[in-house]
Specification:
The complex is a heterodimer of chains A (about 260) and B (about 625). Chain A contains seven helices and nine strands. Chain A has helices at about 15-25, 70-75, 100-105, 130, 140, 155-165, 210-255; strands spanning about 5-10, 50, 60, 80, 90, 110, 120, 150, 185-190. The longest helix of chain A is centred in the C-terminal third of the chain and has 47 residues, at about 210-255. Chain A is elongated and about 95 Å long. By secondary structure, chain B is mainly alpha-helical. Chain B has helices at about 5-30, 30-35, 45-55, 60-70, 75-100, 110, 120-140, 140-145, 150-160, 160-180, 200-225, 230-260, 270-290, 295, 300-320, 325-330, 335-360, 390-415, 415-420, 455-460, 465-470, 485, 500-505, 510-515, 530-535, 555-570, 580-585, 590-595, 615-620, and strands at about 380, 385-390, 435, 440, 450-455, 495, 550. In chain B, the strands form three sheets. A three-stranded antiparallel beta sheet of chain B has the order 3-4-5. In chain B, strands 1-2 form a two-stranded antiparallel sheet. Residues about 590-620 of chain B have low confidence and may be disordered. The chains are: A alpha+beta (about 260), B mainly alpha (about 625).
Chain lengths: ~260, ~625
Amino acid sequence: MSKAILTDITKCIGCLECVAACKVANELGLDEPHTWQKNDGLSAVNWTSIIQTREGRFVRKQCRHCLEPACASACPVGALHTTATGAVIYDSGKCLGCRYCMMACPYGIPRYDWDSAVPYIRKCILCHEKIKDGQQPACTSVCPTGATIFGERDELIALAHQQIKDNPGKYIDKVWGEHEVGGTSVLYLSDVDLGFLAYQPNLDKIGLPATTSLAMKAVPFAFVGMGAVMYGINWMVRRRMELARPKDDQEESSHG
Amino acid sequence: MDRVQKFKTILWSIVGLATAVGITRFIFGLGVTTNLTDATPWGLWIGFDVMGGVALAAGGFVLTAIFYIFKREEFKPLVRPAVLTAFLGYLAVVGGLMFDLGLPWNIWHMIIYWNPHSPLFEVGWCVMLYTTVLLLEFSPVPLEEFSRYAKIRNFLMKFRFPLVMLGIMLSTLHQSSLGSLFLIMPYKLPPLWYTPILPVQFFISAVALGLMMVSFESLFSHWLYRRKSEGHLIEKLGKIAIWVLGIYLIVKLGDIIIRGQFGQIFAGTRESNLFIIELLISAIIPLAILLTPQLRSQSKWQWISSFMVVFGMVFNRINVGGLTMLSTTGDSYIPSWTEVFISLGVVSAAALAFLFAIERFNIWEARPRDPQADPYTKPIFDGVSHVWLGNPSVAARTRYSLAFVVFFAIGFALMPGDRIYSRGVNQDVALPARGGQVLFIDGNRDNYGVAFDHQGHINRNNGDSSCVLCHHMNMPKDKNSRCSDCHDRMYLASDIFGHDWHAAPNGAKIKCNNCHQPGMQRNKESAKQCRDCHLDLVVPGSTIAFEHTMAPSYVDAMHIACVQCHKRMLPAVADKPMLDKCVTCHHPVPEESITSLPDSRWQPAHGNRVVLPGIMIEEGK
């Protein structure tokens, strides 16, 4: 029962209702543009934003809720974790503020309370509590044009492909988020390239946790292996010294 | 002053300045004391303090391996300094991390909350364990001084070999896992650095760096205490380093050739230049020096080669740790001076601890002659203040304390007050609206403004008597002041009162008691309201309340004025149902104007401002 959001870029009119609803639902504070903010509208108190592209389309940016989240795999204490609904949520009680999740995210989503002396990571949590109660997220519930909708991930992907088939030439034949970095729960249909949402335009299908898993699996072997090699070398060196010693010892003792 | 004392005075000054910066960082948070951004969450403190610091401390495990495992007894004089450097290096890493972590008091969470998938989890555990191992490895040295602890010392000495083994094994993991950290960023780290064997490269480079750091540290501390340098040992270390640096070069270049990125090195881009500089300094030039027998035995070239490797390898860590990602993220990051001084302060504190240990314990074969310890030296007379400063040790300590206190104060004086006061909020100045009958309200001139039908609003609201609906307050001797006269910052509230000007002799020259009631505590509550003196300040009939001495930011002021009125009018104006929607005023930018905007990766949808602030929240609650 993995839930998802599908955003149809061609239907968005940039009215910002989703942004406002998100603020109310998550009780986010005043949005003041700080010097450390990236110019995409997201901030510690702004978990979704609308970006106007060069072509004049409105693109809603928010956490992609990867099926294999790099942030959750990177977090040393598991403060970020996936839920059964597909939402990637944050446990502020565990966090120690290393900001490795911000480094790991291929979409550059997690934000930080830079101006607080007790800062936490901030990002969209897919209105996790609402979904659990069978409701839909605040943003999709207020969209006046139906540009952003909520549902089962499989159904939304099928719907998106159906849309592409039914309207030939209207969309680019691709559902953004279906396969990238192992698939995401926030999907996009578009008639313009959305590569700018990530750090690289073309993301691989392999989930990012796989990139470190080999190195992490090698840890016990490296640990034991290094110990064995070092002990082996030490044994050989000692053995060689022992073999070389008797003569010297005899000579020394004869002197003494 | 003696060379040692000069050096220590400088270190104490830096520590003093860094202490002031550190206190500010913990009170006001990371945002205003660093230049870190949402796109560059790791900066100098991770790149240099943590990544570089751990690599610099590699000398400890390399030297113990050479001495205890390979049984190269001739290196004995270098083992204790190396272990001490490693121990202090790790303490410095943990210390530096305390400033960088957002919630440093939660650092122990790694012990109870486990995420074994995370390379950082492994790094954290390795730091904890290895620091403990280093403490146990080093503690017999200070314990020598106290005969009553001989039992503990003997007990620890029994475990010397297992501890050394454990230290080497943990270091192997730790040095390499710092490389594993960046495996999860294939889209951010440029291909010249990103490779699946990053952990292997980190380990090999750490061994090379460890060898050369021990050489550099030996050369430097012997120069400092005017002792004969251990040149023959450093030459031998150099010979070992030839092999390590050679392997490093082969692995690094071979990997780049196999991945088909060799052409990238000479692409002439920013990354390729960084890469060439890094490789030349960290490996190629030092290798050339070390391979020439005449050069590697000379003290001068030992200095040069060891410093180059140390600098080059730390530069490699900084490159991987964020510097080269700036071109991917499109961000610009230059560490603030506060960040630089925290880093320097942590290093200086470690250096002071190193010098302390060298003077008090048997780190070297023979302890350095302590210029302060000689009881027969004459007291020092200070020519400037005409004061006898007592015997040299007291005089030196006075100087260190003075340096610390003076630079502690300077640190606070230099703190960027405007940045701290604004809490990092953009300090753009609001400019007046342009136009005549239709005003284009665009305070920061980003072309995402609101076309306000000024004349239309006047006509609809009964002509001239309606001005006060919006123009709620005027500058002295002015009528209908512009919004931007008082609300003069785009996103920051501005002070329109000027308390100090009212009280200043060359200002309004008003006595305290003229405004504050005598006998009561002088604060806002006990003071007169502005309108009690400035009778014409607030326009009669204005709907906007005015109580405060602070004017809200331009953006807030516009939104409060327009939105509140529009929402009130909503039921009355039946034919305009969208009166309370953002798009009613903020028309989407026409396509032509988008293409005319300066080229950037992100086309700002709304300047920096995305949605109405505050107002909605208040009504939602």
